[in-house]
Here is the input.
Amino acid sequence: MSNNPRFIMLGGFLGAGKTTTLARLARHHQSLGKRVAIVTNDQATDLVDTNLLRSQGFEVGEVAGSCFCCNFNELTRTVERLSAEERPDLVIAEPVGSCTDLVATVIRPLQQVYAEPFDIAPYGVLLKPSHGLKILRRAGGGGFSPQAEYIFRKQIEEADFVIVNRIDELSEATIEELISLIDVEFPGIPCLRMSATTGQGFEAVCEFIDRESDFGKRIMDVDYDVYAEGEAELGWLNTQLRLQSTTPFALDAFLMTLLEDVHRGLNAQAAEVAHLKVIGMSNRKFGVANLVNSLSEPRLSIASGVGTTEPELVVNARVAIDPETLSQLIQATLHRVSFEFDIEISINTLQSFRPGRPVPTHRLVS
Ligand SMILES: Nc1nc2c(ncn2[C@@H]2O[C@H](COP(=O)(O)OP(=O)(O)O)[C@@H](O)[C@H]2O)c(=O)[nH]1
Ligand SMILES: [Mg+2]
Here is the structure.
């Protein structure tokens, strides 16, 4: 292996398990004595993932305001900031889950334009089984428009390898079906299976990521009109707020009640959830709840176990619904649940929008 920092990017749809996987990957490499820096990315500030990874003790730089591909220079500046004091051995990057064409707009430019050399790892894409099954079966009812499904497919097409995640929740028959659906539509792309939460299959993923070969070359045709329409189908919301109560309340119960109520509200409007997540933080303790599709239920992925009086919350929602409706629904639910828990709420920041048309800084197709 060269002495240049290794650049590992893990793609995949919203809620596929990217953050969970890269936290595991970062811990794994730290345990081998490596210095790891993580870069997160979003269309706006106040990211649950950044707060979550920092709460877990990782060094994290955030590229906020647009995706890596459209803000390539901010990606490289962020990596340079993370390298200012001590050069990392590894930079692990998580792109926005509605992005594709990342080989041409991030990996190739890192190799061909950026002056600092990186040792580029194979580009892995996590497959989200719940939406993946519906989309790849082409049976309809996937919850998203054909344009959003186009993005889902393009994400797989450019992967050096695909990881079917969440196998702890899948039967052997379903795993086999997913792998054969991928093989039929994207022949030749190696397909691994993993559970980012239990760690099953993780070792094989690490082995693949460590491979040295001519990776990051799967350049493809992309119709940017369809891509832009697919991204714009999603309503995006990021908000950061503070809760205040005179007596301690159970933070985890608040997070779950909030997501359950938002879920009910979105189901009433038949709005498909791509990813809805919330982190609550209080005195270095934190809890996280997630919902990754409309048919499942919210989960407390990390329990804080605390009673608290003044936690900070960050909520991120990516849902196939008009952003103004999403914003009103989430604000109304926040107020209702706070009232139920007898808590004062102050919303510090709130941004809600549809992602704009992707206009990459670079697009290298040769
Ligand atoms: N059961 C199960 N849940 C998972 C797995 N990987 C991720 N999750 C959960 O799925 C949700 C979304 O994961 P996250 O890593 O945030 O996805 P991202 O949007 O791709 O970064 C969280 O609640 C995770 O705890 C897995 O392998 N098995
Ligand atoms: Mg994430």
